[in-house]
Design a protein that fits this description.
By secondary structure, the chain is of the alpha/beta class. The chain has helices at residues 13-22, 41-48, 58-63, 66-73, 90-95, 118-127, 163-188, and strands at 2-7, 28-35, 53-55, 78-81, 100-104, 132-139, 149-156. It has a 7-stranded mixed β-sheet, with helices on one face. Bound molecules: 5-O-phosphono-beta-D-ribofuranosylamine. 5-O-phosphono-beta-D-ribofuranosylamine (GRF) is lined by residues 8, 10-15, 82-83, 103-105, 174.
Length: 189
């Protein structure tokens, strides 16, 4: 049984979906939710579901051991980034090499990198006239959105789609595939 930590900066709808899914998995449990944003709704969702939370500052993450100490204290085996907007520092990558995954709301390697998150991604995809978009689940390395790709799924971009409409289609894909893909990764450790 793997202890899984989720890092989330915002709403946390994927975090909630993962917490519920892993309640019933023999491979792992979500045992900690960490956020850089004290007002992230993800923290509230975790609290409601009885998951311990930890809030940290930029300084805590990049210049101290506080985040790594908290991960160690909770005996975390695996890390999931679900709408986490800061770069994971090398010390955490080293400690969890091959055990950190992220979900990106587009088909990487296009539409990734710093600043490409949330509606920025969907607006760029629509502005470029793309006929399809999707989700990418990938390993995390020292660079934004650059780790090896594990899984992708596509949705059509329809004429007239707004960023909100595209986001809704992509969220549906995320809820459907992200938990199962992580669950399978845990069986490969
Ligand atoms: C998701 O679209 C995910 O792909 C991206 O950030 C969004 C997070 O949404 N990395 P939520 O906070 O899980 O609702």
């Amino acid at each position: 049984m793997n202890n899984i930590a989720i890092f989330a900066s915002g709403s946390g709808s994927n975090a909630e979906n993962l917490i519920l899914f892993f309640n019933d998995s023999p491979n792992g449990k979500i045992t900690l939710l960490l956020s850089n944003n004290p007002t992230a709704f993800a923290l509230e969702r975790a609290r409601r579901l009885g998951i311990p939370t930890f809030t940290f500052t930029r300084d805590d993450l990049y210049h101290t051991q506080k985040v790594i100490d908290r991960l160690n204290e909770a005996r975390i085996d695996y890390i999931v980034l679900a709408g986490f907007l800061w770069l994971i520092p090398p010390a955490v990558i080293e400690a969890y090499r091959g055990r950190i995954v992220n979900i990106h709301p587009a088909l990487l390697p296009e539409y990734g990198g710093k600043g490409m998150y949330g509606d920025h991604v969907h607006r760029a995809v629509i502005a470029a006239g793309e006929k399809e978009s999707g989700i990418t689940i990938h390993h995390v390395n020292e660079h934004f959105d650059k780790g090896d790709i594990i899984f992708q799924a596509k949705v059509p971009v329809s004429p007239g789609d707004t960023p909100e409409m595209l986001a809704a289609k992509i969220h549906a894909l995320e809820y459907r595939y992200f938990p199962a893909v992580i669950d399978e990764q845990l069986t490969l450790l």
